[in-house]
Design brief:
two-stranded antiparallel sheet, alpha/beta, globular, 7-stranded mixed β-sheet, Rossmann fold
């Protein structure tokens, strides 16, 4: 372990590394953003990770997702990340939830939440719960429909530069309706979103508890550049806050 974390320690020192090792982070969503976030947290030496995702790898994931290969198409993302993260750090305490976002998730032992959910209702609900429970959270709100990773930045929701960007404005509107206008960190972008065409589909999910969930999903354009960087930005925000806590 000392050798594994030696380069980290050389930068931020033993005491900061101990804080990271003693932390428990939950990553909701293991796509292009969440996958890079989870892996970066593991490489930072986070001692306990809980990863949550219900999806399987598809061919359209290959352009941007860590575990998406032709050989992994059809495999559950949680299974692939379990193998990958434990290969990075065999001492990692890893909790795997292969399910759609579940509202009765136990946040009691969680120090920080990474929100990489791409469905608006679940995203807003997770933000609300963490806000009410005073669990630190950073949310991805600017990776889809973009190509320039240098336009990403970290902000409180009250300080987002372009509050009229479609996905951002919808989330801010839903949060404002329940009285939340600040106190949530995001990784978002100054780049104007763009897609050649608007594509949507109806997705049907059956949770492990047997609940049937149907939602309309807008399919964003995605490039190899932005989602990965957004995930790394999220991990940076989490580790920095832990070190400085």
């Amino acid at each position: 372990m000392d050798e594994f974390l030696s380069r980290n320690i050389l930068f931020w020192g033993d005491e900061s590394q101990k804080k990271i090792v003693n932390s428990h982070i939950a990553v909701f969503g293991l796509g292009g953003v969440g996958g890079f976030c989870a892996e970066t947290l593991a490489r930072s030496g986070v001692g306990e990770l809980t990863i949550i995702d219900f999806d399987k790898v598809s061919t359209s994931n290959i352009n941007r997702q860590l575990i998406a290969l032709n050989s992994t198409i059809g495999s559950y993302k949680t299974d692939l990340f379990k193998q990958r993260l434990l290969d990075i750090n065999p001492n990692l305490k890893l909790n795997v939830i292969n399910d759609f976002y579940i509202e009765d998730f136990n946040f009691d032992s969680i120090d920080y939440v990474a929100d990489a959910i791409d469905t608006m209702r679940s995203k807003v609900n997770l933000m609300r719960i963490c806000y009410e429970k005073k669990v630190s959270l950073v949310s991805s709100m600017g990776a889809g429909n973009r190509v320039d990773p240098t336009k990403l930045y970290i902000s409180d929701i009250s300080e987002i530069h372009d509050k009229k960007a479609p996905f951002v404005s919808n989330i801010l509107y839903q949060l404002k309706k329940i009285g939340i206008t600040s106190g949530i960190s995001v990784v978002t972008s100054d780049e104007k979103s763009f897609s050649q065409e608007k594509i949507s589909e109806v997705e049907n999910v059956i949770t492990k508890a047997g609940e049937k969930i149907q939602f309309n999903k807008i399919i964003p354009s995605s490039t190899p550049f932005v989602a990965s960087c957004a995930g790394i930005f999220m991990a940076y925000k989490i580790v920095s806050d832990i070190i400085n806590s």
